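User: Predict the full complex structure for these chains.
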Amino acid sequence: MQQPQPIDESTNDKVGDTAMAPIAPNIGPLALFLAFSQLALSGFGGVLPWAHRTLVERKGWLTEREFVDTLALGQLLPGPNIGNMAVMIGYRFAGYTGAAAAFAGLVGGPFLLMIAAGLLYTRYGALPLVQQALSGMSAVAAGLVLATGLKMTATLKRHWRPWLFIALSLAGVGALRWPLLAVVGGLAPFAIAAAWGTED
Amino acid sequence: MGRVDLAALALHFALLSLMAIGGVSSILPDMQRYVVEANHWLSDRQFADAYALGQAAPGPNMMFVTLLGWQLAGWAGAIVATLAIILPPIVLTLGVTRLHANNPDAPLGRAIRAGLGPIAIGLTLASGWILAQSADHNWRTVLLTLATVALMLRTKFNPVWLIVAGAIAGIAGIL
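Assistant: Here is the predicted structure of the two-chain assembly.
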């Protein structure tokens, strides 16, 4: 990621930067805010595909490689991947203001939509027809989350160890209903130690 | 339903947000445990409804937290819950972004990613399990959940259409 680095000893003006910031034709906070608003509100059923479409294919702000690298780092960090990407991309193009603008764009529209949904739910949520619709939607939503978890297992290596940690966290949080902090705090050090040194 | 303590909620959600590896679905079980089971601020059903509505609207998945906060305490609840979930990871991300610029392939970073991956998967499956428990009341809704899983694994449907289909099935009275 590009950060303010005035003390660059390279004699050529842009050599050090070309890998990470090939094309940054004045992408300011407003442009970031608008782009992220647009991709967030297009993102029915997941924002990531729209982020790729907008940032890489349509606007050409990022190369394919840069997009994947940003995503990988975003996945490592806690919080929603797309939120972390908005912060990183915004910061890269326009510093802290850019990060704030991109993130505000990402969550601003959806925030208001959720409030509208809340108002409607408070008003009409008890109607039988709405209850019926929500029953079906909830059953599907549960299936979506399960499928996401199952899809994620495709990235695992063929080894028993990751499955052990999957089973333990699933049992601790899902079946026994222990607090997440205790389960993750207890498992994470062992999981990281076990992964340390294994090549991937 | 008891009175909602917004300060306690903010603290709890902020803590959870830092453990949301792979997104908000890994901390869903603990949100449900805290809001529904420990404090009785919402019913099981209200929680599942909020999540389903959040999935149906455009935007990042985590935004269902806004709706959850709204149900808990109106505008104040919506703002507090949303900020508590989004701010801590942002600060962390900015910090790491600056560090990462210097050494992108540090072995510790790789070990953390490889080690936490399976835990994130286990937590995501636990979320699905808990949502299914509150959403599936009879064999027909169980079937709908299983059909969703199968379709998601085998096809490239946009999930929103599946949610719409679920709503239609519910309205048609076949659930």
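Confidence is low (pLDDT under 50) at residues 1-22 of chain A.
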